[in-house]
Structure formats: C-alpha cells, structure tokens
Design a protein that fits this description.
The structure holds two protein chains of two kinds. Chain A is of the alpha+beta class. In chain A, a hairpin with a 2-residue loop joins strand 4 (61-64) and strand 5. Chain A has helices at residues 13-21, 34-40, 76-81, 83-88, 90-97, 102-107, 110-115, 124-129, 151-154, 230-236, 243-256, 267-287, and strands spanning 6-8, 25-28, 48-51, 61-64, 67-71, 133-140, 143-150, 155-157, 160-161, 168-175, 181-187, 200-208, 211-220, 227-228, 239-240. By secondary structure, chain B is an alpha+beta fold. Among the domains of chain B are: 25-33 and 464-605, Aldehyde oxidase/xanthine dehydrogenase, molybdopterin binding domain (Aldehyde Oxidoreductase, domain 4, 2-Layer Sandwich), CATH 3.30.365; 36-133 and 196-274, Alpha-Beta Complex (Aldehyde Oxidoreductase, domain 3); 408-455 and 621-773, 2-Layer Sandwich (Aldehyde Oxidoreductase, domain 4). Helices cover 28% and strands 24% of the residues of chain B. In chain B, the strands form seven sheets. A seven-stranded mixed beta sheet of chain B has the order 3-5-1-12-9-10-11, sandwiched between helices. In chain B, strands 7-15-14-13-8 form a five-stranded mixed beta sheet. A four-stranded mixed beta sheet of chain B has the order 16-24-25-28, with helices on both faces. The termini of chain B are far apart. Classes of the chains: A alpha+beta, B alpha+beta. At the A-B interface, helix 12 of A face helix 3 and helix 20 of B.
C-alpha cells in the first residue's frame, strides 16, 4: 500500500495545477469512486493527496453567452436541483435523478464521474447528447493553460482518457440547446436505487415539423467507453420520426453497441436492452 | 398490617398483542450501541486471515519468515499449527488448511499491532500452490470420473437422507395428472450488516473468553472446543450486540478458532474482523440444490403422491447447509395432504463455498418447488388454485406422514383470508386472459403457501431453556435467560411477558443474556423457536415469582393469595382492582422481615415435542404453522423487470404477542425472501465468487419494498405462550414461489432457477415469443 506523504487543499486552480506539474498527485473530490477503488486494491493513492473541493471558481452552474458552464466540482445533487439545468437541459437532471443514491449524489462531483471514465458513468451519457466539451487546465510556462476537448473524443478505454496526469478537469461546457431540442435518457438495472447501469441510452436532437435533426445518441455500458452511436444517429438524421425510422434506428444499434458478458449482464441482454431503450426513448420523443 | 390505599382502582390491562418497542431501539437508532465490531480491549491485537483465492490446490511450499520479521507482527500461524484440530458437523474442517478445497480456505493468519501491519504481513507470506482440477457442481461431482476431493468419500458423497411412505407405484398408477420439474435454487448469503468478528483472550489458567456473534452460545462451546483442543468447560462465550445473524452464526466458522489460536500464541486478546469482501467470500451461504420433484393428483384435484430427488451442493466442508433435508423431507409433503411420499437427498462435496443455516432452513428451497407444482397442477386440472389448495389443505388433528401432529391448523383460513383480501381468483383468471394479448406491461398474481415448525425443533435430546428471574427491593426485575438476542426481538417479548405477569412497567425489566458463565442453557436462536420456548420459560419463571410474592402478600395483608393480583406496580384485589400495597414496598418488607425472603426463581422449560432420532421422523416441534403469501406484480416484458406491487400475507401466528415485533419480523422476512426471489445471487465461476460486494450483489433496499398487507391468524396454540407460535421463518419461505407463480400468471413463463432477474425473465419471454408459443 502506497503511503500518502502529503495532503493538500489548494484554493485556486493555479495552486492545484502547479502542484500537479510536479507529479505524484491524486486529485480527490467526492471520493465515491476513488475510495472504493483504493479500498479494493484496484488503484493506489500517489504520494500527494489533493483535496480539490475548496478550489474557488470550480463549482456552480452558469450561463456564459450562448453556453452553459458547469464547474467540475458541482455535485450530482446540485445538477439534479438546478433550475437552469431543469430549464435548458432536463436530460441532465433526469440522469442525475437516476444516479446512485442520495448519499452518493451529495458527495459525487460531475467532474469526478467523467474522469473516472467508466463506460457506465451516468453523467457522461447526457453530456454526450448535449455535445459537451471538457475544460482541462495545466501549469505551463509559469501560468495556467487550458484546452478544451469534446466529450466524444475524451474517452480512450475503461478508466483511460486523453487527460494528462498533470491536467485538472475544471469545467464542462455545452451550447445552450435550441428551443426545439428534445432529449431523453433511460437506464436499466434490477433496482431503482444504488444501481450501476446495465446499459444506458440517451437521445437528443431538434424536432421540427416531425423531422429530427442534429441528432446525438449516446450509449453507456455497451463498449469499453461511453460512446456516441454514429450509426443510430445516421439512421435518424434529417428523417421524419415515424415507425419506419424508429425501426431503422433500432436495427442500427447493433452496429454501434458491442457489449460484453460480465458480472452485471450478458452481451445478449445488453444488446436487447439497447434496442428496447432506443425504441422507448424515440417513441417518447415522438409522443412529445 | 399497614395499608395505604390512596390510588383509585387499577384496571386489568393486558399487553398481549399490543405494540411494544424493542428496548435497544433508541441506542441502535442513535448510534450509541457498541457492537462487537466496535469493541477494543486493552493490549488487543488485530488478526487477519490469508485466503487461498483458488478453489482446489496443493500447498507446495509456504514461506512466512518475512511476515514474522515485520515489526509489529506477534504471530503468524499456518496449517501446521492447526493440524488435527478438526471441527464442524462431521469434523471435516480445520481452522487453518494444509490443502486448499475452496476459494476462501484459510491458509495462514497473522496477529499484529494494527490492521495495516497485519495486512502488510499477509502480503509478505509467499505460498506456492499446485492447482488441481476442481468439482463445481454436484451433478459432475458424483460421477466416477470426477476428481475425488476427500479420501474417505467415494464419488464425493457426503450426507444422505431418505424418507419413504406409502405405495408409490400404486399412487402413480392412480394419478390422472403428474407435474414433473427440476428446480435449481441458487447460492445466496446472509449479508449481515455487521461483518463476522470474534475477539479471543486466554487467561493464564488456560480458560478462553471469546466475544463472538454466535446465536447458540451453549452448543457453540462444544463445537469450538475441538478446534482448539480444549474442553468446552474452559470456554466462556460473551455475546455483545451483533449486526445480524439470520442463521449464519449457528455454527463455528474458522475465523473464531483462528482468533483463539492467535490469542493463545501471543498471550494477548486478538480480534479477527472481516472486511465486506471477506464476508462475501468466507461467510456461509444458503444451500444450493437441484430438486427433481414430481407431484400427482386425481382429476378431482386430490393429491396422490410426491417424490423429491434432491442433490445438494455440499461445498468443500460440511456445516449445517447439507443437513437441510431434515426439514426438506418434512416440508416436501407435510404441507398438504400427500398420502404417498418418496424423498431422497444426497449432498456432494464440491470446491464451492459451503452452506450454513439460513432463515427458512431448506424450506425456502423446498417451497420454491412445492408451491409452483401446486400452481402447475391446478392449471393442468383447469382448477382455481385456491380451490385446489383448499381441497388438499390439512386440518387440525391431522398427523403428517413425517409424524408432525398438526394440533391447531388454520391453513384453510390463511388461504381464504389472503385470497379474499386480494380478490385472487378473479384477478388470476383475468390476468391469464390478458397474457397473450399485445402490451408491454403485464400484471400477474401468484399464491404460495408453506408449513414450518413453530414450536422449536427437537434436533437435540432437549429443546428447552433455563431461566433465572429475580425481583429486587425496588421491584426491578432481572431475567437471566439462555435466549440470545440477535435482532429478532426476544428482548421486547421477555419485557412484555414479565410486565404482563408481574404488573411492572416494561422499562423496569432488565435482561442478562450475553455471558455463558451467567445465563443458563438454551439450544439457541433457530427454528423460529425463541418466542415460543423463551416466552414459555419467562412466563413460567414470572408466575413462580408471582406466586411467591402473592403468598407473602397473603401473610402480610391477611387476604387470600388467590384473590390478589399484581397490577400497575401494586398488589391489588383481583376482582375490583383496589390497590393494597406497592410492590416495591412489599418486596422490601419481605426482605427485611425476621426470616428474610428474596424473590429469586429458576425455571427450566422443555416443550412437549419428540426428539428426532436417527431417521429425523418424529413430532419434533411443539407447534406447526402455515403461511400464505399472495404476490401481485407488474412485469415489463421487454426489460424483464418485475415490480412487486403488493404482498398480502396470512400467517398462523398462534397469538400476537408483540404486534410491532411481529410486523417487523414479517417485513424483514419478506425483504430477505424478495432478495432471494428477484436479485440476490452469488455468481460463482469455477468456485470463485465474482461479485463479492454490495455493488454487484443486489440486496433489496427500502425503495424496492412493496406495499405489504399482513393478516395475522390466531389459532391459539395450547402449548404456546398465551397461544403464540414461532413466526420468523415463514415470511422468507413463501415469497419466491408466490412471485414465480405471479410471473407465470402474467407472462406464461416459469423460471426454475431463481433469482427471477430481469435478464432471465426478459430472455425467457423473448425465447417464448420466438418459438411462437
């Protein structure tokens, strides 16, 4: 077991990323994924444990021009209760509603859920549907440098992302969805509380005159990373949403979802659920 | 004689059937209770166990030298230190192993200053294994070609049980319909919130004190002693508050002698406590089985015979799990009037985890089969299952082929009550008619019933209990009883009975039941027996005390004892309730008179049941009880999710003693039963548990609990305390088949291998649709 040598609680992004530049830092916020992973031996703390919870400017949800910016430290409970999110991106509030338990929602941060890079991460799915980007900060040439990466390009493998070890995910930003945007999220699991998705499906797009455009489809737990289902998107893009289109979209899921058998479900069941949920969510879009 | 009569008359108010709080509830709810897991003794070391992590292997070599050298380590023990210390139901287990027979085999143990040092020491132990081919199912294990796991058990055959009654060939010939199915009940585990824990300490006279979670402290001594090579008399068992047991603490498990061996080696107290992952891997399971059951009936619905051929997955060692046929062979046919019975059960050693006893003890598995076959046969007969059940339901005075004497039997009343409350017959027909029509969500209703012993189970020569009761100078009552409290609520029942008999407030009763050097003998908490047995023992002891007190009152007050009563903390005239003297005052007068008299009584209660004997066939319980559950569900035919909308239960409880405790026991039993039915499953792959965490082992939690409607049917058991029967196990037993029957009603799909997980249900429905049936 690695001993933690230093515990630090930076107050600013600069202070945090400067320390991260020196290496050997484990960033800790809610700890709802990290603690059990360390406890089970799946990963280890490094020499410096950094509590990022008190960094100024890394929390809160705000409108910036035509974008919505969610600080990485924002808890799932805050997302669930936020009036702006409820108004402009209810799909995110809906996913927060079905996220783990009250205790975990109160502690878990949206940034942590993304960095944990689980194919089952429940905040990731709706953010993919919203075409969100993450903001990554690092210490470079004596100052804080930031870059943005699209969520769709962020994940490489289970627990692996394009984020460098010296980078801190500071915020999630997405364009304010258009007035005719509709989006829904559905996840499964044998019980309502404390569930880790067997599969999740999120679908969003602009519906006008019965035609579905700018369609984005996200799937969780059907591949090594959360993914955008490009084949399903193609089956829907620019089409009138009707029974035939829905049938084609459902058929296209097999081209996107490549699930495996594991302790939670078989590949057969995951493929089956992806079809059921895709149809269900599209019927929901159609019905509204 | 001095008499102060100032108060108004005290009315007779009975507490029987009232709602009484568990006395430990405030401390438990506020976090004040110090569970065994919280206990720290001066100089205490922490013990940790090295598990093999492989199902079947030779230990080629083991190097403990680095672990021994680690600062803060006080002892490292291996199989060599436990050689010959055989324990267990058939003495086939040792605390530390020299050969690996299952994943959680304990191969070494460490005692160290801290948990961290102990864990570091474990990581320094180098073990070289030679893996061996394993046996992972009883069907494979019994084949001659299977690896032989033990020298003295050809074909890996462990325990065997048989029971035959009547002419099977004739009964088969006389049957118009036969249900013939194979059921495969699965491995689940108890999931006590308090993980396994023991603290052991030897004094310099060689006497062991062990703080442990046991639910059978007296026979526990007998079972623990051989694992340490000491005599039972040298063991003192302490029982601090525990976080659940449910049958899992009805045996000795290796961590307990390991704690003691480490304590003996180090001369210091040693605490062994399991992590949640250890708990999943190393605590006992509910027995997995393969049940081939056949049930016959005539065209008019009269049952003709039942056969059960049961294959049990013994696991690597024999604890109480493979003994469940003792109950299975009763409940296979003790339930409805089945004139001809042929039961056989064979346990097969495998390299899987091994089973212990678990609430429902075999009857959960049996009833999963019997209650579904009743449903299957009713459909074959085209008969309303309610009518079919009622036609065969036993009545008071009947004796089952297994010699269970059903003195007070209200099965028919339970059936009718539950069916009427749910409009069962109409709904079942209506839902069946909807089954094959379009629609994603389908409703179903299912009925299941069972029988269980409800007045103890005389598996030993005695099924009794000792009680010591004293009333002090302040009219405070102490009950020193063998009855263990493991959360089931005997504390509230004892308080209630003492209060009922002696007229003292509930909070003036103290129970001492946590030290085997003080409390007298009891068999233990099992077989739904404690309210029945300890309730009778407490009542008898309280009545002896009352007789002594009233006799003294007669002398002092000059009024005949049989006209006096104890009520509201006073001696009163029974007819009018006029208080004559405060009880505490009377007790002091008894104490400080010329010939002093203290109220201290002893009692031994033995139920009027028969010991089981070698064939396990006897009237082994002083009472039997029935329960009927009706489950109403909604099935999502696409995702396979079953939402349990409502459970209606009707159970013969004899008589309600503590209504609140009874409700809680029923709710808890149903929660365990729901988990068994719907979501709990130890996923074993080649003997390795793949889901040793609450993340992937799904308990039923509060949000999933359905609406419950409980009907307590009072049959007034002549032998029971105030008429009560034992209640704990039946709610767990009947729930899974009720849901399985409801699933069939809703979808036409029947699942023979629980749990009825969404995936299994979705797949079965999908396959049914594909096959066009």
């Amino acid at each position: 077991m690695q001993d933690i040598k230093t515990y630090m609680t930076p107050c600013s992004v600069g202070e945090a990323v400067k320390a991260m530049a020196a290496g050997g830092v484990t960033a800790f916020c809610g700890g709802t994924d990290l603690s059990p992973q360390v406890e089970s031996g799946a990963r280890q703390y490094t020499a410096t444990l950094m509590n990022i919870r008190r960094i100024e400017g890394m929390g809160g949800i705000a409108e910036q021009g035509d974008s919505i910016r969610i600080g990485a430290l924002t808890t799932v409970t805050e997302i669930r209760r936020d009036p702006l999110i409820a108004k402009v991106a209810p799909i995110l509030a809906e996913a927060a509603e079905h996220f783990a338990s009250d205790q975990i929602r109160n502690a878990a941060s949206v940034g942590g859920n993304i960095c944990n890079a689980s194919p089952a991460g429940d905040m990731i799915n709706p953010l993919l549907v919203l075409d969100a980007e993450v903001e990554l900060a690092r210490w470079q040439d004596g100052a804080v440098a930031t870059r943005r990466v699209a969520m769709a390009d962020f994940f490489l493998a289970p627990r692996k992302t394009v984020k460098r070890d010296d980078e801190l995910l500071t915020a999630i930003v997405f364009k304010r969805p258009a007035a005719d945007f509709v989006g829904y999220f559905r996840k499964s699991g044998p019980r309502p509380a404390l569930e880790i998705s067997t599969v999740s499906v999120g679908i969003g797009g602009r519906m006008s005159n019965g035609v579905f455009r700018d369609v984005r489809v996200a799937m969780g737990s059907v591949a090594p990373t959360p993914l955008r289902a490009r084949n399903v998107e193609a089956a829907l893009e620019g089409k009138p949403l009707n029974a035939d289109t829905i049938r084609a979209a459902v058929a296209a899921t097999s081209a996107d979802a490549k699930p495996i058998d594991d302790v939670r479900a078989s590949a057969w069941y995951r493929e089956h659920l992806v079809k059921v949920f895709t149809e269900e969510v599209l019927n929901h879009v159609l019905g509204n | 004689m001095e008499q102060k009569v100032t108060a108004a008359s005290i009315e007779k108010k009975s507490l029987i059937g009232q709602r009484v709080k568990k006395p430990d509830a405030p401390d438990k709810a506020t976090g004040k209770t110090r569970y065994i897991n919280d206990m720290v003794l001066p100089q205490m070391l922490i013990g940790k166990v090295l598990f093999a992590g492989r199902p079947h292997a030779k230990i080629v070599s083991m190097d403990i030298s680095a672990a021994e050298r680690l600062p803060g380590v006080y002892a490292v023990l291996t199989g060599k230190d436990a050689a010959g210390l055989k324990f267990g139901f058939v003495r086939d287990n040792v605390p530390l192993k020299e050969k690996v027979l299952c994943e959680h085999d304990e191969v070494a143990a460490v005692a160290a200053e801290t948990e961290e040092i102990a864990l570091n020491a474990l990581s320094l132990i180098k073990v070289e294994y030679e893996d061996l081919p394993g046996v992972f199912s009883p069907e494979v294990g019994r084949e001659a070609s299977a690896p032989q796991l033990r020298d003295n058990f050809p074909d890996n055959k462990s325990l065997r049980f048989e029971f035959k009654h009547g002419d099977l060939a004739a009964a088969e010939a006389a049957s118009d319909f036969i249900a013939d199915d194979v059921f495969r009940p699965h491995h689940v585990t108890h999931c006590c919130m308090g993980t396994s824990c023991a603290i052991a300490d030897f004094d310099n006279n060689g006497k062991l004190t062990i703080w442990t979670q046991t639910q059978y402290p007296y026979n526990y001594k007998m079972d623990l002693a051989p694992a340490l090579g000491i005599t039972p008399g040298d063991i003192r068992v302490m029982q601090p508050p525990v976080g659940g047991a449910f049958g899992s603490k009805l045996d000795v498990y290796p961590y307990e002698p390991i704690a003691a061996l480490l304590a003996r080696k180090t001369g210091r107290p040693v605490k062994v406590i399991y992590s949640r992952e250890d708990e999943f891997r190393a605590s006992p399971t509910r027995q997995a089985a393969i049940i081939h059951m056949r049930t016959g009936c005539k065209r008019d619905g009269t049952l003709t015979f039942r056969t059960a051929d049961v294959l049990l997955d013994n696991g690597a060692y024999t604890s109480w799990g493979p003994t469940i046929p003792v109950i299975m062979m009763r409940t296979t046919s003790g339930h409805y009037r089945v004139p001809v019975v042929d039961f056989k059960a064979q346990a097969i050693y495998t390299n899987n985890p091994y089973a212990g006893s678990f609430r429902g003890y075999g009857n959960v598995q049996t009833t999963y089969a019997t209650a579904q076959q009743m449903d299957i046969l009713a459909d074959k007969l085209d008969m309303d299952p309610l009518a079919f059940h009622l036609k065969n339901a036993q009545k008071s005075g009947e004796i089952t082929p297994q010699k269970s004497f059903l003195r007070e039997c209200v099965l028919a009343e339970c059936l009718e009550t539950a069916a009427q409350a749910t409009d069962y017959s109409r709904k079942r027909a209506a839902y069946a008619a909807e089954r094959d029509k379009p629609g994603r969500y389908k409703k179903g209703i299912g009925l299941a019933s069972s029988i269980h012993n409800a007045g103890g189970a005389k598996i030993h020569k005695s099924d009794g209990i000792g009680t010591i009761l004293k009333v002090d100078d302040y009219a405070r009552v102490t009950v020193i009883t063998g009855a263990s409290e493991i959360g089931q609520g005997i504390d509230a029942v004892i308080n209630l009975i003492v209060s009922e008999e002696l007229g003292v407030p509930l909070e003036h009763v103290t129970i001492v039941n946590n030290d085997s050097d003080i409390a007298p003998w009891d068999v233990g908490v099992h077989a739904s027996r404690t309210t029945f047995i300890a309730g009778n023992g407490t009542r008898q002891a309280a009545r002896k005390a009352k007789a002594q007190i009233l006799k003294a009152a007669e002398k002092m007050l000059g009024e005949p004892a049989d006209t006096l009563e104890l009520r509201g903390g006073s001696v009163v005239r029974d007819r009018c309730g006029t208080p004559l003297i405060k009880l505490d005052r009377l007790l002091r007068q008894m104490h400080f008179q010329a010939v002093p008299e203290l109220v201290m009584v002893t009692d031994y209660y033995e139920p009027n049941s028969e010991p089981e004997g070698a064939d396990h066939i006897s009237d082994h319980s002083a009472a039997y009880s029935h329960a009927v559950h009706i489950a109403e569900i909604t099935v999502d035919t696409l995702t396979g999710e079953i939402k349990v909308d409502k459970i209606t239960s009707a159970q013969d409880v004899g008589r309600v003693i503590n209504r609140m405790g009874l409700e809680a026991q029923t709710e808890g039993g149903i929660a365990i039963g729901l988990g068994y039915a719907l979501s709990e499953n130890m996923q074993l792959e080649q003997g390795i548990l793949r889901n040793p965490s609450f993340r992937d082992y799904k308990l039923v939690t509060a949000p999933e609990m359905p609406e419950l409607e409980m009907h307590f049917i009072e049959s007034n058991c002549a032998e029971g305390p105030y008429g009560a029967k034992g209640v704990s196990e039946l709610p767990t037993i009947v729930i899974a088949p009720a849901i399985a029957n409801a699933l069939f009603n809703a979808t036409g799909v029947r699942i023979f291998n629980p749990p009825l997980s969404p995936e299994k249900v979705a797949r079965a429905i999908y396959e049914k649709q594909q096959s066009g049936k």
